[in-house]
């Protein structure tokens, strides 16, 4: 298990609490951690607590590939068919990490292409800096948890656990991301995030 965590549309008031919020899920990934501000998507902070299982050297997240520099991935999951997908679609993997295939699938056919082809259990946050969108999704079986908060002031929070995000600061309660669904949030001109439609994703 790993811990994924992200905040978008931060203000000075909310950003001062981000570090303490991030540390609340340290137990999900004791091997390593990373937290970073992403200037490509305004007012965002993303973090990862890692439990090393596959590709201990190059599997750190947020994952970014040279082929798709505009994409960033946070994923807690295990993908069973990552090697078959590489052969099937002739993907050029840059790491030995199983979740890398998510970035390739998205670049090839969007978020629907991810769940249509994946065999595994997963919860992910995928940031598309080119389109100014944040995609959040879970597998159809709901094995890996993911919680989302969207506030009236335009702050979007997504995390592996309900206790870790800025619920107390924003005065909102988190909701569990529906299993088998993927939501996307689009960045607005004022750098807040507007919740758009949620499309049901089911395996073949």
TrEMBL record:
This protein's record includes keyword Endoplasmic reticulum: no
Pathway: Amino-acid biosynthesis; L-asparagine biosynthesis; L-asparagine from L-aspartate (L-Gln route): step 1/1
Listed GO biological process terms: asparagine biosynthetic process
Highest taxon, organism lineage: Eukaryota
Alphabetical UniProt keywords: ATP-binding, Nucleotide-binding
Keyword field contains Nucleotide-binding: yes
UniProt xrefs under InterPro entries: Asn_Synthetase (IPR050795), AsnB_N (IPR033738), GATase_2_dom (IPR017932), Ntn_hydrolases_N (IPR029055)
GO molecular function: asparagine synthase (glutamine-hydrolyzing) activity; ATP binding
GO CC, one annotated term: cytosol
Domain spans labelled Glutamine amidotransferase type-2: 2-204
Protein name: Glutamine-dependent asparagine synthetase
Organism listed in the record: Timema poppense
């Amino acid at each position: 298990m790993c811990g994924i965590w992200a905040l978008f549309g931060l203000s000075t008031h909310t950003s001062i609490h981000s570090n303490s919020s991030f540390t609340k899920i340290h137990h999900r990934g004791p091997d390593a951690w990373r937290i970073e501000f992403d200037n490509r998507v305004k007012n965002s902070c993303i973090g990862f607590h890692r439990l090393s299982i596959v590709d201990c050297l190059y599997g750190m997240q947020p994952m970014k590939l040279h082929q798709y520099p505009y994409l960033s991935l946070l994923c807690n999951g295990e993908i069973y068919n990552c090697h078959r997908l590489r052969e099937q679609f002739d993907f050029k993997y840059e790491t030995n990490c199983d979740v890398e295939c998510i970035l390739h699938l998205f670049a090839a056919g969007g978020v629907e292409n991810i769940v249509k082809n994946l065999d595994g259990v997963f919860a992910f946050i995928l940031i598309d800096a080119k389109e100014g969108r944040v995609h959040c999704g879970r597998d159809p079986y709901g094995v890996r948890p993911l919680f989302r908060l969207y506030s009236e002031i335009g702050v979007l929070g997504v995390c592996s656990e309900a206790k870790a995000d800025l619920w107390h600061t924003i005065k909102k309660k988190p909701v569990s991301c529906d299993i088998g669904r993927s939501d996307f949030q689009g960045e607005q001109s004022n750098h807040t995030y507007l919740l758009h439609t949620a499309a049901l994703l089911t395996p073949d």
